[in-house]
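USER:
Try writing one entry.

ASSISTANT:
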Amino acid sequence: PGDRLDIEIDWYFIIPPYGGARMGRDGPLYEIAQWYPRLAVYDDVRGWNNEPYIGAGEFYLEYGDFDVTLDLPAAYVAVATGELQNAEQVLTQTQRDRLARAIQSETPVAIITREEAGDTGRTRPTASGRLNWHFTASNVRDFAFAASPNFRWDAAGYDGILIEALYRTSAPKWEEGIRMAVHSIKTFSEMWYRYPYSHATTVEGPIEGMEYPMLTFVPDNPRVEDLQWVLAHEFGHEWFPMVVGSNERFYPWMDEGFNTFMDLYVAADYYKGTPYGESIEWNPLAIYPENAVPGKEQPLITRPAEQYNLFWTAYQKPALMLQLLRHEVLGPERFDRAFRAYIAAWAYKHPTPADFFRIMRDVSGMDLDWFWRGWVMTAARLDQSVLGLEARPDGGTNVVLVNQADMVMPLELKVDFADGATETFKLPVEMWNQGPRFTYRIPGTRSVRAVEIDPRHRMPDSNRANNRWSAGN
């Protein structure tokens, strides 16, 4: 501790057309990442983390400062992690003026227009030779860059943050990309934690979707809804894992899952009032039956290299888990306060699952061990059922409820009375403390016509056939 070591390394590699879905090139467009030797993370949990990257799951990186100079052909425009230190040498006066105007406006400004794209006489200070692009970045976990001679370049601002979209003329759907980008950064910032960097830049290219500090790679998707989803998802990674640096080699659900959870709200808000917008938020619940297959589903805690449905265990199921924790267990106010506290406490650090569990418990004021046991540590299933009704001596009615499977969750009970009235009762998870059977005393003595568990269909109940009882059945 406190010592310093300087290391000098000369190295080279051939840039592939498609580098493991993380970086590559397409004609004159280059998206460069994972391109330099990295030091493994040394943390206070495992010591040296030297697990190799083998495809499933992503990267575990330490934070640091970067000072990078890119030597490029003069015809190229570059964007990168960090702040550009020599804009006067590599950008035209017109471009610098447009950027200064863009950061003050949420309305997009064209930095390089459709007509200017690829015209080096209009877009470059000089059309021949080479130029050095100098970038510096502080307290970030990686450095990536993109460069092309024929970018279109749109920009806008939000709360002092420069938001940018660069794309080729062959990708016209990307004309909406800057509006999607502003909406994403603004929504994530206002809902959870303010975006901490000076710029948020997204680049269209051959990579299916990948994130780096301040910079994301997003393809030209065939559907505009898919473009919005991937663009927002990659920007969501600026929070997880760029700010909160969990170990993705072991816990991808703390990265991809938390991000997917946030993305669902952004997509629903962006497309509010459309069929897509009204349905996308609860998509993880809709696909639960086809992915949570008994005997095949794996716990979220399973290492990514050992998972055979990473789409479910890393992305969709943890998003559903957090939705239910927010809406059905804690309530939005308590959940949001705890989730924001987690991001703030672990910004630029390396939390484990236990750290997340602890903050959610402490800030919400609720013991959640039962919740994590069912959702993270096991592949438990939920099957809440109505066994029947019992008449009470006072003329009222009791409902006998049974938890038929391993997962415990709170229970919502809708009661239809014979006089036409309806009431809904929310029963806490503690109802199962003494075992899988619970008798609920319906208040009053009105005659009951029917009862139903989970009337809003918000729980992943594996057998809805036993969720309802009605007179005459």
In short: The chain has 13 helices and 23 strands. The mean pLDDT is 96. Residues 251 and 301 are 7 Å apart (CA to CA).
